[in-house]
Amino acid sequence: MKFRRTGSGWGLGAFALSLSIFSPATGLRAQVATQQQGQAKPSVVPETPPKPQPASDAKVPLLDHPISLADFPGMTPRPELQDKLGHLVNFIQNTPVDGAPGTESTEVYLGRTTQALYIVFLCFDQHPEQIRTHLARRENILKDDYVTVNLDPFQDRQRGVEFQVNPSGVQADAAWTEANGADYSYDQVWDSEGRITRKGWMALMVIPFKSLRFPPRGGDWGVVFWRNLPRNSENDFWPRVSANVNGELSQEGTLHMDGLAGATGSHNVQLNPYALGQNEHSLQTVDPNNPYFSTRHLEGTAGGEAKAVIRDSIVLDGTVNPDFSDVESDQPQFTVDQRFPVYFPELRPFFLENASYFATPMTLLYTRNIIRPEFGGRITGKVGRTNLGILAVDDREPGQTVQPGDPLYNKKAQFYVGRVSQDLGTGKNKGSNVGLMYTDEEFGGGFNRVGGADFTWRMNSHWTALGQMVESATRQNRPDSAATVFPSGYNAGPASDLQVQRSGHSFSLFDEYQDVSRGFVTTSGFFQTSNIRSDHLHSTYQWFPKHKFYQSFGLETNQNIAYDHAGNRVYHYSTFDPFWLLPRDIVLAPIFGQNSDTVGPQNGYPLPANHNFTENFGGIVARGQPWSQMNFNLQALRSGNVNYNPVTGQAPFLLNQDSVQLLVSINPIKQLTDDNTYLLDRDHATHGGQLVYETQVFRTKLNYQFTRAWSARVIMEYDSTLANPALTSLQRTKQVQTQALVTWLPHPGTVLYIGWNNNLDNYDHQICTTIAGTQQCNQNYPILPRGKNYLNDGRQLFVKASYLIRF
C-alpha cells in the first residue's frame, strides 16, 4: 500500500531537512509515508504475505427517517433498524500485522435518506479507559483514536474524499489522491457525533449529498473504511487494504447506491459572503527607499464567493474581492541561508476545492504566487472519464509594488490556467491517465506561458510511472517600469520529469529524473532552479519480526545528484539510515550521510572556477506518542553547510552546522492543546571556528476548545538571527509576533473571528533621516536601520464574519 510520499522518509531530502515530522498528520498513516507495512520473518527475503482479498460490496438502503447514536443503545441498533441498515464487519489490519484481524472489533452500519448518507461506526474496545480523544479545533484529531470513510463516487480509483471523526465528535476531512495522499486543506459541510461507552466508542457521520460530487445517475461508489488505534500503532480496514499493493483506492470496495438519481444530490448553488472590519497600524515598505507608517481606523471591506454545481459533477466557482486575509499562520520553517526557495502550502479557501485537478508531476500551478486577487473564476469537475480544470484570476500585487507615476502602478496581472486529463484502464487496472496543462501570466506587456503533456501509468499492483514534458516562453514586462515580475529579455526552453515508483510489503522505491533548461521559467508554478539535470533515488527495505519491543525495522537510502547543462555539478546528497518502528507510534532513526554543493562563477560569486563543498553529517530522528497527552517530533543533526550570503565581494565558504527541529504537543486536559515548536540553525566557519550566524524560532500555540464550535487561541513566536557582519551579509534581526483569536465555526463557510495581531521588530525608532522640509528619506543615511530595542511595526484588531448559504 502506498501512502503519502514525503520524498525523504525519515532522512534528508534533496533540498532541505525532512520537515514531514512537523506535519499535523503524524498518525501512523502519515508516519509510514515511504514505509510499506506488513508481516514477515526476519530473513534476507521476507515471507510473502497473503494475497489481497477480493473487493467487498455493501448496499446502502433508503431510510424512512434520519438516524442518530441514540438509535444504538448498548452499541447495538434498535430491533426495528436491524434489517433496514447495511452492515459491515471483519476489519483487517494493514499495520502493524498486514492481513491479521483487527485487535478490536469494528462494525459499520449504513443508510441514506434523499438528503444525506448516514454512517455509524461501532468501535468496540476491551480497554475503553485507554481510548485517546480530546476536544480540539476541527482537523486536529490525528493523534487520537478516529475512524475514516474514503469515498470515491466516480470509481476512478485516483481521487476520493475522506471524512474522519474522533470519539469526541470532532471532524476532519481531506481530499485524497493516490499520488499525494490526504490534503487537509479541503473543507466540506457535514455533521458528526461521537460518544464513549463502557464497550468502546461510537461515531456518526451525516454527509449531505450537496457536499459531494458524483455521477448524475448515482449507481455504485468506491469506498474504504478504516479505524485508527494509536496506542497499538494499528490501522484496520474494510475491505482489506494490503500493504503489498500500491494504493488505497486501488483496493476499494463498492457501495451500491441504487436509486440515488432520485435523491437531492449535488445540484446546488452556494453563496458565501463575508465582511471584515479592522483597525490597523503598519509599516509600509512598498518603496524600500521611503518607508512610512500607515494607520487605518474602522476600515471595512466585503466580498464573497459563489458556487454552482452542474450535473452533479461540474463545479463553477466565482469570487469578488476574495477573503484572503491571514487567519491561519504558516508552520515555522528554516528560511535563512537557503540555496533554493522554500515551499509553503496553500491555506486560502478559494483555491482548495478540487485543487487535485491541476496537479501534475511538476508543480505548474502554485497558487501562493497569486497574492491579492480581486476577481476570479474556476471550473473543475469530471465528465465520464475526462477531468477538467480551468482557472482565471487577477492579481493586484504587482501593480502595488511600484510607486505612483510608474506606468504599471495599480495595474493587475492576469492568470489563466487550463488542465484536462483522460482516465485510462478498467476495474482494478484503473489509475492511469494522460493529460495536458497550460498556464499563462500576463502583466504590463510581458508574459510567462507554459504548456505540455503528462501521463500516469499504473503498470501493476506495485509499479507506477509518471512523466511530463513542458515548454515555456517568457517576455519581460515593459522596461520603463520598476516592476520585476518576469526575467529581463526573452526566455524560452523545455523541462521534463520522469518518475518511477515501486510500493510493496517490504521494499519500496522512488526515482525521479528532471531536466530543466536554462530558458525555462514558470511564474505560476513552483520550481527550485532552472538549468539543471537531477536525479533523486529513494528506497526502503523493511523486516517485520514478531517482537514485543518493536514492530518493524529497516534501512533507508537517499541519493540526490544534479548537474547543470554545462556539465558542472550542482549538488550531490547521500543519506543512509536504519530505522525502528515501535508501539505507540514511536519511530527511531539515526541518520548518516554525505552532502556536497558546488558553486562557481555561474552562480554570481567571485570564484575563478567551480568549488565543491563536502558536508558530512549525522544525527537522529525520533517521534511518537508515548502517552495519550503528549506527542513529539525531533530531528537533530550535526552537518556541514555553505555560506551562500558572504560579505559583498567575498566567496562562499564551508560551515559547520548544528540544527534542531523539535515539536512537542501536550494535551493536559481534554479541551486544551499546547503546541510548542523550536528551531535552531547554528553555523560556524570550519576555519577559525567563528560564529557566522545563528537562527532560532520559539513558537507556542495554545488552543482552548469551549465547544466544538467555540474556541480561543493564542500564538506567541520569537524569531532571531544573530549574524557576524565580518563573515556574512545577513542582518541581525529579532522579531516577536503575538496573535489572539476567538472563533465560532459551526461548519466551514460560516464563521466569526475576533482577532488581534501584533508584531515587534528590532528596527530603530527613527526609521530614516528625512530631507529637510519633505517626507522623503535621505539616501545618504541608513534606511530602516536595525537597533537593540523593538519597534511596533504592525498591529491589527479585526472582526470577520462569513455565512454560507446553500440552496
UniProtKB/TrEMBL annotation:
- Stretches the record annotates as Disordered: 34-59
Give one Pfam family, short name only. Answer: DUF5916
Quote the InterPro entries the UniProt record gives: DUF5916
**Source organism superkingdom:** Bacteria
The DUF5916 domain sits at 299-370
> Which Gene3D superfamilies does the annotation name?
2.60.40.1190
**UniProt keywords, alphabetically:** Signal
Specify the signal sequence span. Answer: 1-25
Protein name in the entry: DUF5916 domain-containing protein
Q: Which organism is it from?
A: Bryocella elongata
